[in-house]
Specification:
alpha+beta, Thiol Ester Dehydrase, Chain A, 5-stranded antiparallel beta sheet, 3 helices, 5 strands
């Protein structure tokens, strides 16, 4: 059984349109915050990865499905887990819920790159820390 990262978000006025509905692009920001917190939870940060490994984690693609709307002052929970991994990248599934309702599902393809924007092997130290969060699918 794989583990999940959880992160909570509260919807603020700045996140919504004039009707109090979350603007669709803000869900991408919520997902990014959850991924950043997931890194922090295993002892890393984007800055630390850049400084220690001369690497960055970039979003190569994001497939997102909007199921329901979130509104002003809603409390949302983001569940993130690693669906599959290769030597240089991984797919993270992220699900945003409000109470029992799923409002957004996303699959994000993340790639480790070096300073020349070329894919590089995921550092072993990071790979091992992420391992409990892998789903059963590991690709080579």
């Amino acid at each position: 059984m794989h583990e999940n990262f959880f992160h909570k978000i509260k919807v603020y006025y700045e996140d919504t349109d004039s009707g109090g509905v979350v603007y669709y692009a803000n869900y991408l920001k919520y997902l990014e915050r959850a991924r950043t917190e997931a890194l922090f939870s295993i002892g890393f940060s984007n800055k630390k990865i850049q400084d220690q490994f001369n690497s960055l984690i970039i979003v190569k693609s994001c497939n997102i499905e909007y199921k329901k709307s979130a509104h002003l002052e809603d409390e949302l929970k983001i569940r993130s887990f690693i669906k599959s991994i290769t030597k240089t990248s991984f797919f993270m599934n992220q699900i945003i819920t409000k109470g029992e309702d799923t409002i957004v599902e996303a699959q994000v393809h993340l790639v480790f790159i070096n300073n020349e924007n070329k894919p590089v092997k995921i550092p072993d130290e990071i790979y091992l820390k992420f391992k409990p969060y892998f789903c059963d699918t590991i690709k080579t």
